[in-house]
Write a structure and sequence with these properties.
Blueprint lengths: L3 E8 L2 E7 L9 H8 L9 E7 L15 E7 L9 H13 L10 E5 L2 E7 L4 E5 L3 E10 L2 E9 L3 E6 L27 E7 L8 E9 L3 E3 L3 H14 L5 E7 L2 E7 L5 E5 L2 E8 L1 H8 L6
Parallel strand pairs: 2-3, 10-11, 12-14
Antiparallel strand pairs: 1-2, 1-17, 3-4, 5-6, 6-7, 7-16, 8-9, 9-10, 11-12, 12-13, 14-15, 15-16
Enzyme class: isomerase
EC number: 5.1.1.7
Family: Belongs to the diaminopimelate epimerase family.
């Protein structure tokens, strides 16, 4: 078996293993994805981005007339996700730097399971026009003995945004285990964001800090759709229909903007850091049946 080429990239330390597979010939499995994302035995990452032509993927074919490329995104545990905001930005950087697309000022369309996103690629940052976030329910998340009220937000994938109050510190939360949530409301799981206000910064309407526990990945350094959900809630609570929010995550800063036309944008850095070839033994080990003892 031949090895498979890969690139490692990240957006505010939300990191991904990128697999070029233009014609959809690579057979991904949950076990293989988990093996690639393992930080000790594999390459390491919060997820896998498979780069495949939309026309060559059954879930991308419906968007082939709008976008040449489909982002086939998998969480690090081998589960499939509808959307990843930082993933789209890293995906767009990969396409442009490898000559698969051009950095059109009007935007580069990328097909995802949540629809077609538009990426504007610049030298230092990539901005992506996202799905319009929809706040649709109140709920709670429990971490240890602490239960925090929050708002459910649909960003093409599910989120629960929980604001911290009464002296509870963001850095003191134990997110090594998944927060307890209402499984009747979040039947497919949910990404949970915890938020606290931060000092005002120039050029934005609101500034907050965020930590996130992502379904299928655990706590990550950043989450693009999570920042979008947080930005939507921050503007809503401020009584603003339009505006921008700086969202500080563990891996840096993202900026969420709802522009004058009502379009929502996620902006931040996206970096490719390494490339190489996966040893065929990784594929063989992932395909091997488990041994019971």
């Amino acid at each position: 078996m031949d090895g498979v080429f890969f690139t490692k990239g990240h957006g505010t330390a939300n990191d991904f293993v990128i697999l070029p597979d233009p014609d959809g010939e690579l057979e991904l499995t949950p076990a293989l994805v988990a093996a690639l994302c393992d930080r000790r035995r594999g390459i390491g990452g919060d997820g896998v981005l498979r780069v495949v032509r939309a026309a060559k993927h059954p879930e991308g074919a419906a968007h082939a007339a709008e976008a040449e490329w489909f982002m086939d995104y998998w969480n690090s545990d081998g589960s499939i996700a509808e959307m990843c905001g930082n993933g789209v930005r890293v995906f767009a950087r990969y396409l442009v730097e490898n000559g698969l697309a051009t950095a059109d000022p009007a935007g580069l369309p990328v097909a995802t399971r949540a629809g077609v996103m538009l990426a504007v690629v610049r030298t230092d940052t990539i901005s992506v026009r996202m799905s319009t976030p929809r706040v649709y329910a109140a709920s709670t998340a429990t971490v240890g003995a602490l239960t925090v009220p929050g708002l459910a937000v649909d960003c093409g994938n599910p989120h629960l945004v929980c604001g911290l109050h009464d002296g509870v510190e963001l850095g003191g939360l134990d997110l090594t285990v998944a927060p307890l949530v209402d499984t009747a409301l979040f039947t497919a799981g949910v990404n949970v964001e915890f938020v606290e206000p931060a000092a005002a910064v120039t050029g934005v309407d609101r500034h907050v800090r965020m930590r996130v526990h992502e379904r299928g990945s655990g706590e990550t350094q950043s989450c693009g759709t999570g920042a979008l959900a947080v930005g939507a809630v921050a503007l809503r609570e401020a009584g603003l229909e339009r505006g921008s929010v700086a969202v500080d995550v563990l891996g840096g800063r993202l900026v969420i903007t709802c522009d004058e036309r009502g379009a929502w944008w996620l902006a931040g850095p996206a970096v490719l850091v390494a490339s190489g070839e996966v040893d065929p033994a990784v594929f063989a080990a992932a395909a091997a049946p488990a041994v019971s003892g």
